[in-house]
Amino acid sequence: MRWIALCLVLIWLPFAVVAQDVARLDPGGSGLVQTGRGWWGRSAPLELTLGLTQAVPYRVYIVADPARLIVDLKGVEFPDMTGTDLAGADLVPAIRWGRYRRGWSRIVIELPGPYRIEKAGQRTADSRPAITVALDPVSEADFAPRASAATALRNLPNPAELTAPPEDSSLVVALDPGHGGFDPGAEAGGEKESDLVLEFAQELRTALEARGVQVIMTRDADVFVRLEDRMTIARKGGADLFLSLHADALPEGQAAGATVYLWNSRSNRRAAHQLALRHDRDDLLAGQDLEGQDDALTSVLMDFARTDTQPRSENFARFLTSRLALMGIGLHGRPVQTASFSVLKSPDIPSALLELGFISDDGDRANLVDPRWRTRMVDVIAQSVTGWARDEAARKGMLRR
Q: Does the keyword Hydrolase apply (predicted)?
């Protein structure tokens, strides 16, 4: 028996080593951003971030005709998406990726002009490894691509043969602008939370629909909608994701920056409790009916349902906060938190509550009324929603049937 067990271990061990060596590109933590403005006819400086599930050997260089950034990665699998789906892909003429030789993958980014690599490095100190490449525009005279350009361009990957992801039109998102009607929410500087989040939700709906996403609005005017009705609207519409939008107030100095909240019935942080009191006023206590009246079986079934939806909610929060950070949107010091908000209580729909900012903070309030900031924020959220949906579809396809 010992010999049989030893043989089984020896057979299984190489496969275990291989599995550990495979890293995955994290699309939520990856993308291109502009880090400055272009001057005197030059392109703007760029920064590429590649989020990974684990640190890997890599190399980066630039080749010419046309100017391209080459990133070679050892032992990295790409998600079921194309390079054009990468956040910030519209900043460059083209992006493609794929395997180019055994054990190595390659990303090719066509640049909008001559660039040089200002710096490149890999962050490995925490649980979210990432490779960052900073690119500075240069003049044609100062452009110095890799000398062995022919070698570098050999075996460039062909566009990956991928099964087409589900059409975005199959994705249904419920947008929930908080408060409304006789419940204005927080107020500061002459602004009402209910008005700000409704305008933002309408702009976000337009951006999502332009990407083929079906959008359900829990309210589309300055009206009062009970909390249980908001979740019912989402459920009846077959929502795949429920996103509640707020711009709340806390005592001065307690909070600033965007914050994503996920469901946690045991959350007892002071700030979350204060916000719950505001969100769930006496005439809005939708969730209370479930507590004390649900029998043990119902509670168990709800908890069981959350074993599927809660990780998916957490995955969306990671996508959203990664993209927000990547695009330079100000985040709270703890960008993902938990709370027992009633609108997050539905066990059958992945749900998140996004505090766009805090109306009580002067800087956040100025952002909320600035059309340019809202446009950036809308674009980031729309990218996060569609990126999350593609990632969810890819994960679902990998599940054992």
A: yes
pTM beyond 0.90: no
241-246 β-sheet, strand order: 214-217, 172-177, 241-246, 351-355, 258-263, 331-339
Give the domain-ending residue among 90, 124, 153: 153
What is the per-residue DSSP string for 142-167? T----TTHHHHHTTPPPPP--PPPPP
Q: How many structural domains is the chain composed of?
A: 2
In 211-337, which residue ranges form alpha helices assigned H by DSSP?
Answer: 227-236, 270-279, 296-326
| Average pLDDT of the residues of the chain | 77
pLDDT in tens, 320-336: 988 888 777 888 778 88
In a shared domain, residues 252 and 125: no
238: exposed, middle or buried (C-beta count within 10 Å: 0-12, 13-18, 19+)?
A: exposed
- List pLDDT tens digits, range 338-385: 887 777 777 788 999 999 988 988 889 999 999 999 999 999 999 899
Closest CA to 354 of 286, 277, 255, 262: 262
Please state, in angstroms and rounded to a whole number, the distance separating the CA atoms of residues 222 and 119.
Answer: 50
pLDDT tens sequence across 266-275: 654 544 444 4
Mean pLDDT of 71-83: 84
**How many C-beta atoms lie closer than 10 Å to residue 64's C-beta?**
15
- Residue 335, both tokens: 């960008």
Determine phi and psi for 304, rounding to 5 degrees.
-65, -45
Region 139-160: mean pLDDT is 59
pLDDT of residue 41: 64
For residues 47 and 35, give the distance between their C-alpha atoms in angstroms, rounded to a whole number: 7
159 occurs within a structural domain: no
The CA distance from 296 to 291, in Å, is 11
Question: What are φ and ψ of residue 291, in 5° steps?
Answer: -85, 125
Burial class (CB in 10 A: 0-12, 13-18, 19+), 12: exposed
